[in-house]
Amino acid sequence: MVDLVGQYKKIKPEVDEAVLQVMETAAFINGPAVKQFQENLQNYLGVKHVIPCANGTDALQVALMALDLQPGDEVITTSFTFIATAEVIALLRLTPVLVDVDPDTYNITPEAIEKAITPKTKAIIPVHLFGQCADMHPILQLAEKYNLYVIEDTAQAIGADYTCVESNKTMKAGTIGDIGCTSFFPSKNLGAYGDGGAIFTNNDELAEKMRVVVNHGMAVRYYHDYIGVNSRLDSMQAAVLNIKLKHLDEYTTARQKAAAYYNDAFAGHPKIKHPVTAPFTTHVFHQYTLVLNNVDREGLMKHLADKGIASAIYYPVPLHMQKAYLDPRYREGDFPVTEMLSKSVLSLPIHTELTEEIQKVITEAVLEYV
Ligand SMILES: Cc1ncc(COP(=O)(O)O)c(C=O)c1O
Questions:
Q1: pTM of the entire structure?
Q2: What are the DSSP E strand ranges found in the chain?
Q3: Could you report the per-residue pLDDT of 32-59, keeping only the tens digit for each?
Q4: What is the rounded distance in angstroms from the CA atom of residue 210 to the CA atom of residue 215?
């Protein structure tokens, strides 16, 4: 689905030098590369605070830990996302409240959120799924009306631009709500060479607390003000990310160009719906995901695999149908859009190294089978 080796080869001299420098200085934890990356990412995003951490799941967990929520408090999120989003809610003994998604963008909708709000609701976690922003303006309005926190899960949308319909102000994904959380998992749009994550906020108080929580709740060495976690971005990953951040916009453009090629190839096909980008956001195509109509999905995947073409299902099982998350509040049929999507989505390879020649082979193979 991605070509990380091809991408590495193009930046090898820079990356090798940066990683070797970390080894020469042995500043493996919270070294200068981490500080530098924090500043570089703050500038790129136009956000006051970036708190690097060990992975995107921890970023979400630390964000929730900073909000002083109580067991049983409800957190609304989407039923169509990677498990990490709901996992951290459950882990902290908070109650995940799931809502269905929009059939075009696969993102959470403000209408569904409002219906799910109760006196116990304390936060909303919109996920900017596959690379485009959720409809944030009405979500922020709901948050204000009901006094809720908004934590953006932007693990898949780093670099996407959101434009507020009211103010016409453009902001980077993850800097719109109270807190934004991202992942630097290697295959992400800004991927490290191992695990990594970061938290963003413009709120000084929350930033200070989260910076302490990621380091065992310790502001002064061996004095623990909060129950914390050990979640630090290691310096080698920061060194790699410093190089790759410089290329992020060019990586995004390459993904958008590849998506446009696919869109053209599948346009108007009665059995293939290509991704739809909402007017208030750009799409950075972390995934290029089709919705198939009346196509044997397993058969298509096998047809592609026989030709050496990767494809993947994100995600085959909605959250409310996952064994660990079965809950008497939810039954099959409760989230019809999510359930339809989990049965009919198929993601094709999308990455920075795709060429039109490769895409021609992929699209022809898809169309031949369908
Ligand atoms: C939507 C979403 N949220 C959270 C995560 C968790 O990130 P990580 O794998 O870095 O823990 C991921 C990525 O895997 C993701 O796609």
A1: 0.98
A2: 49-53, 74-78, 95-99, 121-125, 149-153, 161-163, 170-172, 179-183, 197-201, 218-220, 223-224, 272-273, 288-292, 345-348
A3: 999 999 999 999 999 999 999 999 999 9
A4: 9
pLDDT of residue 184: 98
What are the pocket residues of ligand 1 if the criterion is a CB atom closer than 6 Å to any ligand atom?
A: 55-57, 81-82, 84-85, 127, 153, 155-156, 183, 185, 195, 197
Using left for φ > 0, alpha for ψ between -120 and 50, and beta otherwise, residue 263 falls in alpha
Q: Around Cβ 82, how many Cβ atoms within 10 Å?
A: 18
**Exposed, middle or buried by CB within 10 Å (0-12, 13-18, 19+), for 230?**
exposed
Short-list 256, 259, 280, 342, CA closest to 134: 280
Pocket test for ligand 1, best of 82, 188, 241 (most atoms within 8 A of CB): 82
CA gap 210, 52 in Å, rounded: 10
Give the type of residue at 9: K
Residue 199 CA to ligand 1 centre (angstroms): 13
Q: Are 88 and 61 in contact (CB under 8 A)?
A: yes
Closest ligand 1 atom to 195 CA: 10
To 10 degrees, what angle do helices 297-306 and 356-369 make? Answer: 140
Confirm if 136 and 126 have CB atoms less than 8 A apart: yes
C-beta atoms surrounding 208 within 10 Å: 15
**In DSSP terms, which residues pair with 291 in a beta bridge?**
273, 345
Ligand 1, residue 156: give the atom nearest the CA: 16
